[in-house]
Design a protein that fits this description.
The chain is α+β, with helices and mostly antiparallel strands. The chain contains 5 helices and 10 strands. The N and C termini lie far apart (about 40 Å).
Length: about 220
């Protein structure tokens, strides 16, 4: 367990730009925020907030000075989130999500098979993840799946989706637990993010062994 938590810390140090928080709100210039992420897009701001309300916010170095100045004057995470579009001088949406991780996935039965992302049976939404993706098939037809966002060697984020006709069968929780076990076997810590109002995603995470410990993720999504 201590080793896995060290990997989580190492992931946050790279993904966010520093960890643990030294104050209520730390803003750091993180060069990774200026580079394409797992899917080729740039996320100029990524932050994580602990259950105690202390946060580290990593920002594209070219955009960081205004954000750093705001944080120095007002140590308030939610006020900063509200101000982000103006501080970055970009149109877009800033907000919080739930940040979860697991070191002990639930011992649920496997529900899928790993396939290359470019397999003909893999749906379009899973292809950008690259590598292998985990899918449940009905014959040769996809019904549910998990993609792995391989942020860095220490932290891999899971994203799950289920076709409407296959919902209510517990596939999402089983797939997430199965994928989490593989991530741990590969030496990384599995993380799981979702919107605060996504009840179905929260239930799947709880059942898969990803407890809500009161942590949140902060992001900024530029307008197209």
């Amino acid at each position: 367990m201590p080793e896995l938590l060290e990997r989580l810390v190492e992931h946050l140090r790279g993904w966010v730009g520093g960890w643990p928080p030294a104050s209520v709100l730390d803003v750091v210039a993180n060069p990774r925020r200026a580079l394409p992420g797992w899917d080729g897009t740039v996320s100029p701001v990524v932050g994580v907030v602990t259950a105690g309300g202390r946060a580290v916010l990593g920002v594209d170095p070219a955009l960081a000075p205004a954000v750093e100045a705001f944080a120095a004057a007002e140590q308030d995470v939610d006020a900063l989130i509200k101000a982000l579009p103006g501080l970055l001088r970009r149109r877009g949406v800033a907000g919080r999500g739930v940040f979860r991780w697991s070191t002990t996935p639930a011992p649920l039965a496997d529900a899928g098979v790993w396939l290359p992302f470019d397999d003909a049976r893999v749906p379009e939404w899973l292809r950008p993840f690259g590598g292998d993706v985990l899918v449940t098939l009905d014959g040769d037809t996809y019904v549910a799946g998990v993609g792995v966002k391989r942020h860095d060697p220490c932290g891999h984020e899971l994203a799950v989706g289920t076709e409407e006709a296959a919902r209510g069968r517990g596939l999402a929780r089983r797939l997430v637990a199965q994928a989490a076990r593989r991530v741990l076997d590969e030496g990384a810590v599995p993380t799981y993010l979702h919107a605060p109002d996504n009840v179905a995603s929260a239930r799947a995470a709880d059942a898969a062994g990803f407890p809500d410990l009161g942590w949140s993720v902060v992001g900024f999504w530029p307008a197209p």
